[in-house]
Amino acid sequence: MRIILSSNPYRDRGLRTALEADRILRKAGAETVLCLPFVPKKGERLDLPRQAALHKLEEELPKADLLVCFGGDGTILHAARDATLHGVPILGVNMGSVGFMAELERTELSLLVPLAKGHFVTEERMMLDIRLLRGEKQISQDLALNDVVFSKGSMARVAEVEVLADQVMVQRIMGDGVIVATPTGSTAYSMSAGGPIVEPNCRCIVVTPVCAHQLSSRAMVLDAGRRITVQMPKGSRKHLYLSVDGGKVIRVTANERVEITQSQCSTRLVQLAGRSFYQVTNQKLGGYVP
Questions:
Q1: Nearest to 111 by CA among 133, 131, 94
Q2: Which residue, 50, 97, 266, 288, has most beta carbons within 10 Å?
Q3: What homologous superfamily is domain 127-264 in, according to CATH?
């Protein structure tokens, strides 16, 4: 097994946890490589070990059997798109505060041993294809594991948003924006905005208004086969801001629309610890703990 160890140096100081995992996996017979999840900015000082050989993630993914991410949920989301496109499963080791998507905590590195022999199971997580269109011209496209967030930005104004499913109006929302989430993303921003928690292996799309100034605006769960369109009313002089999985923000104007559909790609998350979804939810989101 060729395993990439990709560690967020802001969370894993000196890559100490990644290096300990490297030692454990090599001793178990795995071939490992160390990578950073991003390219450091010029002049940026990071606490990195001098003796460690760091490789480029984009060069190693095509040759890898497994990607282990050390960090928070943001680190996993950042890696999910490229890993999925290369068919590489992901295992998260939590180095953050919540780490809801992580399978292991930093104190559980001994559980990595079976990975060396390929002894693990994966769970497929639904993803979303996102296309920004101006008329019939595609401006950009992206892939989401968690959610697509439309917001009004920091200005003190109300966003007006139309949400359609298969070209039929579902909701007109006045408020701070709207979230279109996968089941995986239902426990993130969507939940904080009052959306439902959905089991992660379900196939559906959650639409959650953000701070809607309407009694009639409620979160909705739509069939995964729907084509969701998010746009502003015709003639609107306002604009929205679009962010996919917490990434780069894109400005969306009134003559543009965003189409969201279930992707043919699925992220494969490795399961090792044997914890159920409800155990993780209660433990990490402050629910019932027996």
A1: 94
A2: 266
A3: Probable inorganic polyphosphate/atp-NAD kinase; domain 2 (2.60.200.30)
